Amino acid sequence: MEHKVVDHLFRHHYGKMVAILTRFFGLSHIETIEDAVQDTFIKATSQWRTQIPDNPEAWLNRVAKNRTIDILRSIQAEKNRNLAITPGASMLQIDELFLDHEVADSQLRMIFVACHPTLNPNEQIAFALKTISGFSIKEIAAALLTKEETISKRLTRAKKTIIERDIQFQYPDPEAIHNRMERVMKVVYLTFNEGFHSTNKEKLIKEDLCGEAIRLCQLLLKKEQFRSGSLYALFALLCFHMSRLESKISSDNQLVNLKNQDRTKWYFPLIKMGNSAMHKAMDYDDSSVYHYEAAIAFEHLNAKTFKDTNWKKVSYWYEQLHTFEPKMFTLLNHATVCLQLNDLEKTYQILKSIDVAELGQRGYLYYGCYAEYYLKKGEKDLAISFLDKALLETSNKLEREFLMKKREKLL
Amino acid sequence: MKDFMMIFIGADYQELGLSPEQLQERMGKWFAWNEKMQKQGIVKSGDALMPQVKRVSGPNRTVTDAPLIEGKELIGGYYIVQAENAEAVVEIAKDYPDYDLDGTVEIREVMVFEQ
């Protein structure tokens, strides 16, 4: 019999199985559980060579469950303890945890563990990508442009903290939910940005990271208690951005900026999904940066051509966003929009108020904007010198090629 | 037609720490290769082997659990296929999925004992 295995089944199922087994055996066994789940996939790659089981997911669940029990039993035998592995819980209960709604519940608990305030933000993202999204250390390192060793350390620290602090596999208390949700949304948002905005990556890695962020967001939206205007707005924002992912990279892996993207490639169903999420966000009173960012993203999608963009509206939203949460990067974006409006005076005022050090790795964009500004003013030499500064600030291949091309045109 | 054994050496997934995504991709390739050979009707048998090794050696029948064997020397599995000659098996072996992980295929003709 011929069976096809669903794309990404292993990766998605990794997170599910780790979450379920952790709910049953407790967070203190997470390392053992992760090993057991990994073993299960290795076993599957050998056994499924000749025949893929009728129900691959059930096969994986069964094998992972048995493997975990085996490992825990042998650990206990070594320790020579007489404790039962699962005090008060029967094997029947563990099977119930594999039901769909329980799986979602377990995964949500894992998201809150990943975003526990005792973990630092770097650890939170690494832990979430490993434990919930099933990325390997190597893949996380590639995705976050970090050394494998650094990721290993972050994961070790996160697990150590979880065990030392005896963090429970539970939702936070109702009064803590609001604060924790902010953290959760931030982690989802950062995960997405790692995929979407960083250019030094293969398209596949981008898609995976962005896809994971959207999946986590959908998971959170399933539960009434976690819904808010901010969460819907975040979901809308991710959908809007995601709809452009395909058009952002050309077939020869070149970065395509908004101006030159093929707008027919924008994925309409995602835009539609984003729109309806935005409407739902309006039913709530809270506001967030996600609201404003989604509004900006929508304005871009709403324009038939780059020239048709309602720059005045975009400019307005950037102003609002900056008032809501002042940030250098927002200012920079606003300056770029003022350039489009040919408001050179305002562009210059904003650029002058930016502290480039705070832009970090994105400093090159600041110099790039200055270059555009001088180009519009007709001061070619200054434009070239700012392009040179921009080139000094980025080692990113795609980004460099983009700047070089621009520079060549001016010579 | 003769019988040949293709022995797969190295590319131990466990040791290489492949991610779930990579493992699924590998599995897909193995499945496709197996299916192709099955359709050609050339597979006589084949198995994957567990990585744990016990070795018995020397006149004293010394037993060693051999983690001494490095992953790149570990035999991971085999197929017995029917083919005209070794060159034909070399062609078949070109679809082995793990060359990029430093895996090797060794091809050996199965000896036939005269009646």
From TrEMBL, chain B:
Residues 10-113 form the YCII-related domain. PANTHER family: BLL7171 PROTEIN-RELATED. InterPro entries: Dimeric_a/b-barrel, YCII. Belongs to the YciI family. It comes from Maribacter confluentis. This is YciI family protein. It holds the Pfam family YCII.
